[in-house]
Design brief:
Helix content: 40-55%
CATH architecture of the largest domain: 3-Layer(aba) Sandwich
Largest sheet: 7 strands, mixed
Coiled coil: 230-257
Number of strands: 7
Number of domains: 2
GO molecular function: fructose 6-phosphate aldolase activity; fructose-1-phosphatase activity; metal ion binding
Radius of gyration: 22 Å
Cofactor: Mn(2+); Ni(2+)
Oligomer: single chain
CATH topology of the largest domain: Rossmann fold
Protein name: Sugar phosphate phosphatase
CATH class of the largest domain: Alpha Beta
GO biological process, one term: DNA damage response
Strand order of the largest sheet: 1-7-6-5-2-3-4
Strand content: 5-15%
Shape: globular
């Protein structure tokens, strides 16, 4: 807390903010989903000791839900052997042992997932169990049309890049312009992949998920990027390529959601490597199940494994027995092309997975230089550090109640100017904190139907609007 900015954070007691909606409406639904998932798994367990232990975890999850819904005092986390527990508990005490419905939103949401994780870590038979895994893969399966569309488009581009056709009979200016457009398209695909955030979309149908994805939806959404620093990001990447032509040029992606969003992150990573805009891409997953859909190392391998035999994965019947039409040979071939390319990049050390315990601590990223100095130093080695999604954005700006016209470079504190880190944030807005807006923009969006008016910033809760914000800490 000592390294945080003085600007106050959003609280779960603030009825005008999404913090209150989260604590009272969303979190009980998420815990109920976790209980249901574990119950389904326990039913299939033959070992009595394991089944009983699973039932005990279910009882503890129900207790957590009761405490949350009845606004009980938050209790210290049980020590599961991981060093972050002490820090969580110290901060709980510093915050005055608060109640669920009157506490900093960021701290309490992180505490919620950390407490759930401790139940599994402290068990004998359920260590490493992910109550969200089934949901994550089901959502990826629901994304079939968008996956197939992107696989075809990406393969076409990769073949063009390899053959050199894209550069034939073009001036250097035309080549750069084409590359800039392609970079923007790949980044926008990556940005809007975040439209499917499982912790928010708890009741969407298969058809609804498909509507959120695909090229038509992306084109319609372009006008909804209210801060767009993509051109500046591309210029920085181009400059690095010119200046370090034969040197190492690394890009880092601090991941957000698994499933379709991880798929589009890998599309972007593959593109950066194929186009020579990066020589390596480092992916930063979470070390444990986190905020429902966040990527863990296992989610990465599960996604790749599903692409080995896309026919089997995409046509397998779902839980209700519904079957799906077969893929064409071309569709299978396109998905397998991606699998082979990404696996090769991974094997060659160009696509690297690097979890770090800092990503699941309870505070904002203002704390990084002091709490995780080795991670902070490591990120300076990167040409560009891309922070994906809403939670990473909230942590960058400390989930604080900044005036929306505050500069992004100011709101990210020690990761801002002269930090040595070039920060790029891709975020579809699903929470109140937002910075870098032109004067009057927040008021204009609040005045729209459902925008919240003078009462609240409801426009920023829906994921309809996005920001792409750059801070060049290397300048």
């Amino acid at each position: 807390m000592e390294f945080d900015p003085k600007t106050p954070q959003y609280l779960t007691s603030d009825k005008s903010s999404f913090a209150s909606v989260s604590a009272k409406d969303r979190w009980p639904v998420i815990i109920t989903g976790a209980i249901d998932d574990l119950h389904r798994t326990v039913l299939g367990v033959n070992d009595d000791e394991k089944a009983n232990e699973g039932k005990s975890i279910i009882a503890n999850l129900a207790k957590l839900k009761y405490e949350l819904q009845h606004d009980r005092q938050m209790t210290p986390l049980d020590d599961d052997g991981h060093p972050d527990i002490a820090s969580y508990n110290e901060e709980l005490e510093k915050r005055g042992n608060p109640h669920w419905h009157d506490v900093a939103w960021l701290y309490s949401e992180c505490y919620l997932y950390r407490r759930m994780e401790a139940l599994f870590t402290l068990s004998k038979h359920w260590k490493g169990y992910d109550v969200f895994a089934r949901q994550k893969m089901d959502t990826f399966k629901s994304s079939r049309p968008a996956v197939l569309e992107l696989a075809a488009r990406y393969r076409e581009l990769a073949m063009e890049a390899e053959s050199g056709k894209a550069r034939e009979n073009k001036s250097p200016e035309e080549i750069e312009q084409a590359e800039k457009l392609l970079f923007s398209e790949m980044c926008e695909i990556c940005l809007w992949g975040n439209a499917t955030d499982l912790s928010l979309l708890t009741s969407l149908t298969y058809e609804d998920i498909q509507k959120l994805q695909g090229s038509e939806a992306r084109k319609a959404s372009q006008k909804n990027i209210i801060v767009n620093d993509l051109d500046a990001a591309f210029e920085a990447m181009q400059r690095a390529r010119r200046e370090k032509k034969d040197g190492e040029r690394r890009v880092d992606i601090v991941l957000d959601n698994s499933g379709f969003e991880l798929f589009v992150d890998l599309i972007l990573a593959g593109y950066l490597l194929s186009a020579g805009l990066a020589t390596s891409v480092v992916l930063h997953p979470k070390r444990m199940p986190w905020f429902v859909s966040d990527v863990t190392p296992k989610d990465f391998s599960d996604l790749l494994n599903s692409m080995i035999d896309p026919q089997a994965f995409y046509t397998a019947a779902d839980d209700s027995g519904k079957t799906f039409p077969p893929l064409s040979e071309k569709e299978v071939s396109n998905v397998q092309f991606l699998f082979e390319q990404w696996s090769q990049f991974h094997q060659d050390g160009k696509l690297i997975l690097r979890p770090h315990p800092f990503w699941t601590t309870q505070g904002g990223y203002w704390r990084m230089p002091s709490v995780a100095p080795e991670l902070f130093e490591d990120l300076k080695e990167s040409e560009l550090v891309l922070f994906k999604g809403d939670l990473n954005y909230r942590k960058l700006v400390n989930d604080a109640q900044w005036d929306p016209t505050t500069l992004f470079t100011e709101a990210i504190g020690p990761l801002g100017p002269k930090s040595g880190i070039r920060v790029l944030a891709f975020r579809t807005c699903k929470a109140d904190p937002v910075v870098g807006l032109p004067a009057g923009e927040d008021e204009k969006l609040r005045a729209l139907p459902g925008g919240g008016g003078s009462e609240s910033r409801k426009w920023a809760w829906s994921g309809k609007w996005a920001v792409v914000s750059l801070s060049d800490g290397k300048a």
